[in-house]
Automatic annotation (TrEMBL):
Belongs to the beta-class carbonic anhydrase family. It comes from the Bacteria. It is an enzyme of class 4 (lyase). Its cofactor is Zn(2+). The gene is icfA. This is Carbonic anhydrase. InterPro entries: Beta_CA_cladeB, Carbonic_anhydrase, Carbonic_anhydrase_CS, Carbonic_anhydrase_sf. It comes from Candidatus Accumulibacter appositus.
Length: 210
């Protein structure tokens, strides 16, 4: 029960700040949301997109799932949670940026690399979205350590999701028109660094302050 008590105390601090000191923000948010950025992030408890970016309530629309994956476009898919969120963010909220935020030590990617998905009911099928990332890493880095291969697959998985985003016609159209911009980010848990994918160099480089 210690965690529950801590969470309730945390809510009380949140309530005091946003419904006391900064009441105007939630007065505005009760009339609707208009975030300009969608973040597709991992469900991992160590990687909170709002915490990492310093976002305030209403700043970002967030979709979290195992290994921050975006499935390819498939019309009429059953219970398509991620596509439904993408559709709402793009067509209704009209976001201008989509960030795929991956991270180091990702359990989903580790399971993919170790072939552990067959032992699960749901996870295996889900992480198979990034199967081509695993295939690429195993082909390009066959003699590297498991830890290095995992890291490479974590980053390659981000690229798979970016590629899959472009299979949605209403995202591809907006990217082509320049009204939506796609970003690949990678949070290094050990170093505390944020890396971004640079298409020009085909590599993840450290983010530098503007």
């Amino acid at each position: 029960m210690k965690d529950i008590a801590r969470f309730i105390a945390g809510f009380e601090r949140f309530q005091e700040k946003y419904f006391g000191e900064e009441r105007e923000l939630f007065d505005k948010l009760t009339r609707g949301q208009s975030p300009k950025t969608l973040i597709v992030a991992c469900a991992d408890s160590r990687v909170d997109p709002a915490l990492l970016t310093g976002a305030e309530p209403g700043d970002v629309f967030v979709v979290r799932n195992v290994a921050n994956l975006v499935p390819p476009y498939h019309p009429g898919g059953d219970f398509a949670s991620v596509p439904a969120a993408l559709e709402f963010a793009v067509l209704s909220l009209k976001v201008e940026h989509i960030i795929v935020l991956g991270h180091a030590k990702c359990g989903g990617i580790h399971a993919l690399m170790q072939g552990l998905g067959s032992e699960t009911e749901f996870i295996g099928k889900w992480i198979s979205i990034a199967e081509r990332a695993r295939t690429r890493v195993q082909a390009e880095l066959p003699s590297k350590s498991p830890a290095l291969q995992d890291r490479a697959c974590e980053q390659a998985g981000i690229l798979v999701s970016l590629e899959n985003l472009l299979t949605y016609p209403w995202i591809a159209e907006r990217v082509q028109a320049g009204t939506i911009h796609l970003h690949g980010w990678y949070f290094d848990l050990a170093a505390g660094d944020l890396l971004h994918y640079d298409p020009a160099s085909n590599a993840f480089d450290a983010v530098t302050p503007a």
